[in-house]
């Protein structure tokens, strides 16, 4: 799937995340553009959270690739191993010399891909830190060269030493931060709020206590808390306040991409609105890009620019928010939309629920489905017969 609407910050290609025989995420692809909110929706167990956790490398992905800022940060090798296995199997019975040479090349190419994938997965952060350190050094050397006094040069040299130490410990993956679903379980009960929020800075190598304190106070005020909260423990706060602490912990690292994993599902309705409004404000102030994972389509409609719908580990539909709500195509998407309650008792009484039964809705026994672009920017998982039906329905 490709599109040309702005810079692509995150690219997920054919992501597979298997746990034994369970295919939690199976061949999922999508792009997230810089500055947008990409909503990922579906019922519990469909693979939304697993996709988010795979992106921030909590899990080692089974196969596929994840690119962030143009650099591959996650790579799986299962697809390459399967290609090698199939080629070796065919070699046992193949008598055609030309085909044997082709099979040998397939094996060599896939072994090379495995080597590259393992290197990128393991050393992407190291390579990024090296590049950042070189850029930092070059930037400071230029400033020192143009400094007007020895005192200014000494000050810049001292600042360069600190920033180089930080750059060498900076990881590309820290540019992606996650807000977890459960605001209680995601905070260490033995740590103060100051320690929780500043932990990332300490890991990065920042030791200036005054700088850390000021940064923590700034983050607390940014998320609607006060600096006096820094000395308290998580159990002293409400659910909404704990979620704000989780958001502060994420944004103190100055991320470019925020993975919000159902950040409001454990909160009261009035608090949900506050947290959503806070995320909207932070998006504007800090220029954040957000992957917003949720199962409440009415919230996602309000908050997201584009929406991807997942079902049983597969992406079944992807479109801009208005387009998806105006022209839902996949029967599962239609089922989800029909489940949204309406604030009008008369309309609610007449509302017809659409029940999605995949066995009755699809015949994939011979013609297998793939993601296809039916309308511009509107992708649906379907086979040839379904594609023809959708095009006929929408007069394409």
3D structure, described in words:
The chain is of the alpha/beta class and 396 residues long. The chain has a domain at 89-170. The chain contains 14 helices and twelve strands. The strands form two sheets. Strands 6-7-8-3-9-10-12-11 form an eight-stranded mixed β-sheet, sandwiched between helices. The longest helix has 49 residues, at 97-145. The chain is globular, with a radius of gyration of 25 Å. The two termini are 19 Å apart. The mean pLDDT is 90.
Widest β-sheet, arrangement of strands: 6-7-8-3-9-10-12-11
Estimated radius of gyration: 25 Å
Element string (H = helix, E = strand): EEEHEEHHHEHHHEHEHEEHHHHEEH
pLDDT averaged over residues: 90
Helix content: 40-55%
The total count of helices amounts to: 14
- Total E-strand runs: 12
Largest sheet: 8 strands, mixed
Percent range for β-strand residues: 15-25%
In whole angstroms, how far apart are the ends?
19 Å
In one word, what is the shape? globular
Which stretches of 5+ consecutive residues score pLDDT under 50? none
Query: Which class best fits the helix and strand makeup?
Result: alpha/beta
Concise overview:
With 396 residues, the protein is an alpha/beta fold. The chain has 14 helices and 12 strands. The strands form 2 sheets. The chain has an 8-stranded mixed sheet, sandwiched between helices. The chain has a 4-stranded antiparallel sheet with strand order 2-1-4-5.
């Amino acid at each position: 799937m490709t599109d040309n609407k702005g810079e692509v910050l995150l690219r997920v290609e054919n992501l597979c995340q298997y746990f034994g025989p369970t295919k939690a995420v199976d061949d999922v692809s999508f792009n997230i553009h810089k500055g947008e909110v990409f909503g990922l929706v579906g019922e519990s167990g469909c693979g939304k959270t697993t996709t988010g956790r795979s992106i921030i490398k909590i899990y080692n992905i089974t196969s596929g690739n994840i690119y962030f800022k143009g650099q591959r940060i996650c790579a799986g090798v299962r697809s390459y191993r399967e290609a090698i296995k199939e080629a070796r199997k065919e070699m046992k019975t193949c008598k055609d010399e030309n085909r044997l040479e082709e099979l040998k090349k397939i094996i060599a190419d896939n072994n090379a891909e495995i080597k590259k994938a393992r290197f990128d997965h393991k050393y992407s952060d190291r390579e990024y830190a090296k590049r950042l350190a070189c850029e930092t050094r070059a930037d400071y050397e230029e400033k020192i060269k143009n400094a007007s006094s020895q005192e200014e040069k000494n000050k810049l040299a001292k600042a360069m030493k600190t920033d180089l130490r930080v750059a060498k410990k900076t990881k590309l993956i820290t540019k992606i931060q996650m807000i977890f679903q459960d605001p209680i379980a995601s905070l260490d009960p033995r740590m103060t709020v100051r320690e929780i929020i500043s932990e990332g800075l300490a890991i990065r190598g920042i030791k200036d206590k005054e700088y850390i304190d000021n940064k923590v106070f700034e983050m607390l005020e940014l998320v609607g808390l006060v600096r006096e909260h820094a000395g308290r423990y998580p159990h002293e706060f409400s659910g909404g306040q704990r979620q704000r602490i989780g958001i502060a912990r994420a944004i103190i690292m100055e991320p470019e991409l925020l993975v919000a994993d159902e950040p409001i599902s454990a909160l009261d309705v009035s608090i949900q609105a506050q947290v959503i409004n806070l995320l909207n404000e932070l998006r504007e102030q800090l220029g954040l890009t957000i992957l917003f994972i949720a199962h409440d389509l009415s919230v996602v409609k309000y908050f997201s620019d584009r929406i991807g719908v997942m079902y049983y580990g597969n992406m079944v539909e992807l479109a801009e928010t208005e387009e998806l709500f105006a022209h839902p195509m996949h029967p599962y998407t239609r089922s989800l939309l029909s489940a949204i309650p309406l604030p009008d008792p008369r309309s609610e009484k007449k509302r017809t629920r659409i029940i999605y039964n995949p066995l009755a809705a699809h015949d994939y026994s011979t013609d297998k489905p793939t993601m296809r672009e039916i309308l511009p920017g509107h992708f649906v998982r379907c086979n040839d017969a379904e594609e023809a039906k959708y095009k006929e329905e929408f007069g394409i």
